[in-house]
Amino acid sequence: MSGINPAASITVPTAAARLDCREALLHGARMTSDMNEARQWTDALTKVPAVTLGFWIIKVLATTLGETGGDSVTMSWLGETTPNPVFGGYLIGTAIFGVLLVALVFAQIRAHKFNPWLYWATIVASTTCGTTLADFADRSLGIGYPGGSLVLLACVLLSLFAWHRVLGTVNVNTVTSPRQEIFYWITITFSQTLGTALGDWAADDTSEGGWGLGYGGGALVFGAGLLVLAILYLTGRKVNHVFLFWAAFILTRPLGATVGDFLDKPVASGGLDLSRPIASAVMAAVIILLIVILPQRAGRHPGQAEAAA
User: Fold this and answer.
1) Which pLDDT belongs to residue 22?
2) What is the extent of the structural domain holding 216?
């Protein structure tokens, strides 16, 4: 024992070893930070609802409310369909609902978690704004249904292209940042507007530049289109689910538009001639009831699904 030098058994790390150790610690810290950031983003998806059957039911009702609500302001209160309309009624209505939409989108982006009341209020604002904007494009600008629909389709495609170009995906389940939410709501508003134009184009008489399907015929056509998309989704066909979502989202709008027009347009035009404000109030009450009754939960980021697997 007396021949053993205690100091000789202690290994002093070299400078290179200390550097390697420091780099390993820094690398581990960076990995931990990246994992925490990724977890933060995947957990941040709390403001976009899960795409369920309940989602689509409320969405169709919201688009119907958007049609009757938008018509209440521009056609009834501002008199666009009366002998003495207010000058620029469709543009004024678009400005009113546009300001409301911007305020709600701002609140939606500022929210820290999914709030079904705020989300669906923003959706309704986008449908009403889409209704008045489509009417302004089709009627006030004088470009007609084909021109208005083509312009709005181009806006939807450009919005989706820019979204994908900047962020790499247009999957709504990856909406986790303010920038993504801005793209989300811009695309939704354009799609709502396009849907309104398509619904009016399909339902109106051929003498007015429409397809002449009537409100019932238009609703059947767009309902059949949604049924085809549902079959493609449920049967597991190799069709991109992101494409199916946006196609269904667009088609629900003309379905709601034709149903809304059927409720409030004159009997001579094929409608029921119900009061637009009353029809809007009934739709709003049904939506509120469904939000209370149907489960409302946030969507799930793909990263969460991968982590769970």
Assistant:
1) 57
2) 54-294
Measured CA to CA, the distance from residue 128 to residue 110 in angstroms comes to 22
Has residue 306 been placed in a domain? no
pLDDT at 184: 94
How far apart are alpha carbons 164 and 186 in whole angstroms?
13
β-partners of residue 199 are none
C-alpha closest to that of 246 among 200, 308, 296, 187: 187
Maximum CA extent, the chain: 116
For residue 77, the SS3 value is helix
Q: Which of 152, 274, 130 minimizes the C-alpha distance to 215?
A: 274
Would residue 2 count as lying in a domain? Answer: no
Does 307 map to a domain? no
- The closest of 5, 114, 124, 111 to 65, measured between CA atoms, is 124
Helix (H) or strand (E) holding 258: helix 241-264
pLDDT tens digit string along 194-235?
999 999 999 988 888 889 999 999 999 999 999 999 999 988
Return d(Cα 64, Cα 46) in angstroms, integer.
Answer: 26
DSSP 21: H
When comparing pLDDT for 174 and 3, which is higher? Answer: 174
Q: Could you count the other beta carbons within 10 Å of the beta carbon of residue 12?
A: 7
For 179, left (φ over 0), alpha (ψ -120 to 50), or beta? Answer: alpha
Rounded average pLDDT over 73-87: 92
What contacts 251, CB < 8 A, 6 or more positions away?
A: 195, 222, 225, 226, 229
Residue 47 lies in a domain: no
Q: Is it the case that residue 38 has pLDDT exceeding 50?
A: no
Which residue has tokens 């904007």?
133
Domain total for the chain? 1
